[in-house]
Fold:
Amino acid sequence: MHGQLNNGLDIADGRLALLLSAAKEIEPGSRAMLLLAEGLFRLDVVVAEDTLRTVLRNLSGGVIETETTLGTITGESILFGDAASYEPGRAGLGFTITTGADAVWVRAMIATLRFADRGTVQVGAQAILLQAPVA
Amino acid sequence: MTAVVDRDNSTVVTVHNGTDVPLQAARDLDGTASSISLAAHGPTTIGLPGTGSGVHRLHLQILPNGREFPDVVSLLVTAEHGSIAGQAFVSET
Structure:
């Protein structure tokens, strides 16, 4: 079962918007589906040693244009308590899906926690999908 | 968000809503999804069991509510045998 939560967002100008979030705990080297937007995209992740690799599958039939590469979305990370022992990592990803005259902007944040005692890595993500303004 | 681990390894997670408005949230606790409301100016408690499967997972997706709370927040909590770790994602809408 894929434990992803999906909810629509009310945007002032009436554009369609969707919030997706999910987490997976995986063993290093294995690949897992992290986020799924039906008919739009699927985001898989692979954790190998200190590297987080993403695999973006286009389910839209349109074109996906990556606007930012992993890690270039800016923001602030705050750690509390013993969080450093989990070796937290963080990355961001942005892309646009264009199908005909319609386009959707996607901004995703991905974060990792390493569970050394279990030999696994938890990968969490939150993505906002926003309908682009009509050109 | 705070958490207290009891002697039987059960965990109580408390989410404090510091805004003037109630907030709606989607919740997934160990694979069971539901909706909850976070009362304005108050705590909401969520219990994670201390028995059964060794690892328990809580996933909350808190939705925006007007200008009082324009953000979206995803909280991910993992608890096992008295240890607990959490991640939070915060984005503006």
The interface with chain A takes residues 26, 28, 31, 33, 55, 57, 59, 61, 63-64, 72, 74, 76, 78, 80, 85, 87, 89, 91, 93 of chain B (CB under 8 Å).
